[in-house]
Fold each of these.
Amino acid sequence: MPAAQSARASATKTDDTLLREVVEGLSQVHKQLPSKYFYDSAGSRYFDEICQLEEYYPYRTELAMLPGIADDLSHLIRDQRDVVEFGAGSLVKIRLLLQHLPQIKRLLPIDIAGDHLREAAAELRREFEHLEIVPIVADFTRQVELPDRNKVKKLGFFPGSTIGNFTPLQAVAFLDRARRSLGAGALLLIGVDTKKAPEILHRAYNDKLGVTAKFNRNILTHINREAGGDFDEDKFDHYAFYNPTQGRIEMHLISREQQVVTVEDYQFAFSKGENIHTENSHKYTPEEFLTLAAEAGWRGVRKWLDDEELFCVHLLQA
Ligand code: AVI
């Protein structure tokens, strides 16, 4: 199974950050966990499986759009010679761009999962012999120093609608940091999931095989391993719904019973039916997204929508 584009905003950290963020999240009146902790190796595999599901339209829709977009891009990009992929993962989607963009001389893929990134880069090198590939192991949600900023113009690439996993405020902050990292004259190609019939969204996050449920529950096992927790996955139900007021899918874990969970020296009491909010996945109309991007100093150059308007890819200019 091809590995999907990674959403490893900031994957496993064995330092105190995970414990601190978990304790902070579970101490809130409305308990929550950062969705970046979905992506340990099991979680990344579940996400790859989700991307192959019939119900999960975002991955396959964007993937099918990319060759045509890349063809258009070859006429739209001017003197950009570097491509920078944020949260590069397995470098599946970037291939489709590179095949149509011979003017690109260097690829700078950014991902926190160093080993995985280096392996994917080595494989890509065999396919694109004339392309320089410089993997950058970093948390792309922070400011990343890129080589030759302002000297070699850059095309940023952020597929998969991972932008939707940020709140709108965080999304503006990310887009602003990305603009500064990419430097003068940059372009950004970004995939954004659109607003659509709630039933389609509901199906995408409540698949029949229950892969999304496993993906959601796995965050607890990840926390057990990394932060000394004793969560029992079987005591939590997956619950995902579209919240039309916020324009987002929300994923939650619902406690099946009254229970107390220990994470290192901390204890957290759950009543039966109490929830942990684990993920938001914001959906934007093309216009809403362009307004958001404008707040971060980007203007829209072109957008591509599939026939059913399930997914939108925007080309932005700094
Ligand atoms: C990575 N991200 C864009 C996915 C999404 O759709 O928000 C993560 C995901 N969550 C449940 N299914 C997929």
Amino acid sequence: MTSILHIEGLTKRYASGHEALSGVDLTIEEGEILALLGPNGAGKTTLISIICGLVMPTGGRVSVGGHDIARDYRKARGMIGLVPQEIALEPFETVWNVVRFSRGVFGKKRNDAHLEDVLRSLSLWEKRDAQIRELSGGMKRRVLIAKALSHEPRVLFLDEPTAGVDVELRRGMWEVVEGLRARGVTIILTTHYIEEAEEIADRVAVISKGQILLVEEKARLMARMGRKELRIELH
Ligand code: ATP
């Protein structure tokens, strides 16, 4: 297997003095789905934000597809698709404009066939001319994923894709992730839910107080520790 993302000794101390990450090491293989499981304040968003170049690390290294984010930011960032927690989309824009513009921002040549393919894979093609404000919450989340895939990234980050959504919407999101897996997209998703990690991940990394406590194949982890024990470990 080829690794797509390599994180070494990553630390983050915010200006407040709070150490959000303390020496995180993690390697992600191409094509896998990794669930980053951890309670509130564990450091999940900080980790993703550093990888995406939104937050500056205090120490350590991150490389994506062999490109160091500090030295070769444009190339590294171009390989990443980020689906943030909050739905921040322009209400009066159409779905098609959102994905087309997003691709342009990454300096990629126009490729309508790719955008059509992405929208079809997320059951959004019929909605391409709809304005964002006309869509349901679930559809808006799909638009965020389509936007993140518009520039053909090799790894996709989903930051708590099902936080605060109902069971039906959560199941719908799991199906979307399954579909992306079938297309060979490498996915890292953060979650509070053990059930979510159990349902869709190949490997699970448990993060708490800025440290990775364990990284293990999901099947092995679930066999070794029951859900109950994992729940206790997380709190
Ligand atoms: P959640 O599941 O609630 O989103 P998380 O695992 O994503 O949590 P982070 O948002 O990365 O955790 O936060 C990690 C720690 O760093 C928390 O204690 C948080 O309060 C702190 N933190 C986050 N951003 C900042 C900031 N800009 N300045 C100071 N402290 C921060």
Amino acid sequence: VYQLIANPVSRNDEIVGMLLLVLDVTEKERWDSLRREFTANVSHELKTPLTSISGYAEMMKEGLVPAEDMGEMAERIYHEARRLMALVGDVIELSRLDAGGAGQEMEILDLAALAAQVAEPLSASAQKREISIKLETEPVTVRGIPRVLEEMIYNLCDNAVKYNKQGGSVLIQVRRIGKGARLVVEDTGIGIPFEDQERVFERFYRVDKSHSREMGGTGLGLSIVKHGAMIHNARLRLDSEPGKGTRIQVDFPFV
Ligand code: ADP
């Protein structure tokens, strides 16, 4: 896509020439269209839980909900509200990352300690479905933005639990590799169909929308991981086999 700009050049009120500028705006057009699509998606994703919440609240207000169903209704409102909060949080995170992690300082930190700290709160939801989480780490320093790294590790581990099977397992590994650091999150879950593997890092792309919703997903987790990896010059690799499990590897460069 090209844009043509024409500017007359005048000297002493007399037009002596024409300045023609041909700009290649292909990349800009692509970004503009991605941004429009993202805004439309966000609006749609915000509207769905909000419609449910106001619908449930209205039924309660009108006295249409029998006393014995009140608890369940409150539970549904709570679930939708949590989804909204997660979505708003992820959108804020992505816009920060779009600005290149602006205003956030890189620090030298231990990736293993961070992984242990992030994995800890996930054990409750894992236990409910008899999923075991195993940590295999050694201290390795990386240079990174702590909050972004936390967010990346959390999203990977959270997915490994969410898309796992009853009684499955999750392995979180942090180790030195060459002069850099390697983070691996591996699960024995449902896996990702081959044809979807490239697209799961796109914003709002989900293999099974209703399953993701049910598990409280936003469809933004892996795009945050991808963006975070870019900011840290880290390399991402996904291996997955449907029905068997998924392994995601993030290689951080030497500090
Ligand atoms: P979501 O909030 O839906 O989990 P993500 O961006 O984190 O969004 O992931 C995108 C999609 O990729 C998910 O909806 C799911 O279909 C698939 N996915 C991600 N991680 C895994 C995994 N560990 N096992 C199987 N499928 C996964």
Amino acid sequence: MHHADVMMNEANNGRFYCVYRVSLWAHAVNCLDRHVHTCPERVALIWERDEPGSEFKVTYRQLLEMTCRLGNLLRRHGVKRGDCVTIYMPSCPLAVASMLACARIGAAHNVVFAGFSAEALAERIRDAQSSTVITVNQGVRGGKLTELKKTVDTAVQSCPTVQQVFVAMRTENPVAMTAKDVAMEEVREQKENQTLIKILMPTAEDRKLYFNKRKQLSLFGCGFITMLWLLHVISDNAQEMQKEDVVCEPAAMDSEDVLFLLYTSGSTGKPKGLVHTQAGYLLYAALTHRYVFSYHDGDVFGCVADIGWITGHSYSVYGPLANGGTSVLFESTPIYPDPGRYWEMVQRLKINQFYGAPTAIRLLLKYGNQWVHKYDRSTLKTLGSVGEPINTEAWEWYHTVVGDGRCPVVDTWWQTETGGICITPRPSNPDAEIVPGMAMRPFFGIKPALMDTEGEVLTSNHTSGALCIAQPWPGMARTIHNNHQRFIETYCQPYPGYFFTGDGAYRSKEGYYQITGRLDDVINVSGHRIGTAEIEDVVNQCSQVAESAVIGYSHNIKGEGVYAFVVLKKGMDVEEMDLSRQLNDLVSKKIAKYACPDCIQVNSRLPKTRSGKIMRRVLRKVVEQDLNGLGDLSTLDDPAAVQEIIEVIVNII
Ligand code: ATP
Ligand code: MG
């Protein structure tokens, strides 16, 4: 610990956060070297490639070597501490090594989900002012190839800051290279075939060299920090080592230095580049990973989120690796080659904790239980959900069908802004009750507060309000890149002295929390305020309905009316009148008559973000017939879904 000082947040009159600043080794050390020292052959990553059965394992030693090579490569090409590197790659070990290589040399990474269009990528590169991009020639997902390198080529045309693009080979298909491109194969000394595996896998020679060095060091019986210092001194003098690139001196960082920026999913508007810092983020990711999922040494952790989202950052990369765990990187889709993919993978890789999104659970539920029952899921211990409120039907299915009623389901509430899980059940305490569909209790150090419409704190239970957090916690984002004012305005000013999440929550009589959805999605029907998620939850309980999106629209009498977009389960065909009757019965029984849908529209799909969240703001605009006001659609997954809805609405009206 070199120095400590206290940081205050100016927007909160010094009340907000207070962080002890320390110097620490870059996170590649905390996530890799520490474990290489004690268990070099432990598997760090299992790359679950698109084709089932073609998984690829990377040990901690291999991942460290890969990271060091990349770190050296970046340094040799002028990437410095404080720079920002954009990573446009699918989930794969090289992407993780790229993140850690940036961390190792003190550069910030900016991972952009590899499904984004050239325009969305360019916007994020420009905002981040990256001069370096790392990508792969092609992506492989759901049996299809995507032209990632070509997308980068188009994007960088409108990004004057970009000076170099590193290109790795995910497939054997060559790509046209431009003057800015650097083939990643240069990482190796071009001794062997230039394939991705060759980049990923060190040769026997590399290994010998590394272990000789380690033996040398252990002779001194030195501690961890001393070992790094020695590696640094020795590598300075050992030309051979430098040439082989297996050692890369880690930067010493301040606890409040930037670790990465990450743009939010964009469900509500223009994406924000949230900035996370070194010490607090890693601590929080590691703690939550261990305690929320009850992760134990030797477990295989299966988070299926893409590394392009915060879930992938915290629970595929930083959390599991900081804990010396084995993390699965999922390259495929839940229905490739069939809807049994997740569970076949659970059986084959012996996954102990599975962490996924409600949108995928709802999708799989549509296909029926046989796809789950086919596979052995006895290794599973904890099931996690994140991203949206999980409706009761999906929760029950996850619990009883996937988890055989045996595995606790943790519905984890958090955001890109919070860095890690904030409200969640904690199965490591076996006596703690879990109520279906509830996020339950705050994690250690999190103090939730509910606010009423006047901005006053609600102190009683059995009440709903705007969800805020009353004190700082280690994993919180520190700012929005290049726009601190927007950070203050969005999160700190709405309820001075509190962090405002933008979500609504209900606190039960027992003091448990249930997330009711985004506050933007709260509607006021005949004077009753209700979260649309609550209505969706009931609509989804109808046996014919796979999923739904409810929005409010302007209504002469009620103020706002309830408009329900509904997707039916596979093979279901139902008369409009019949569906309307069923939904009205259900909603009036489970909520109240006022919440019954005034309009029901059946669609084959809903507009979603690339991370699988329903974009209700787009639906609102379509219903208002404000097609010019649809806003930023760069994060929209399938524009055809919006088109379909527009066409149906035009026919109705
Ligand atoms: P943007 O902020 O750009 O609109 P986003 O909010 O979708 O995008 P994320 O940070 O990925 O981006 O998502 C966090 C949000 O997802 C939360 O604020 C909440 O609305 C929702 N969410 C996440 N987990 C849960 C959960 N377990 N239950 C209910 N909602 C959740
Ligand atoms: Mg958000």
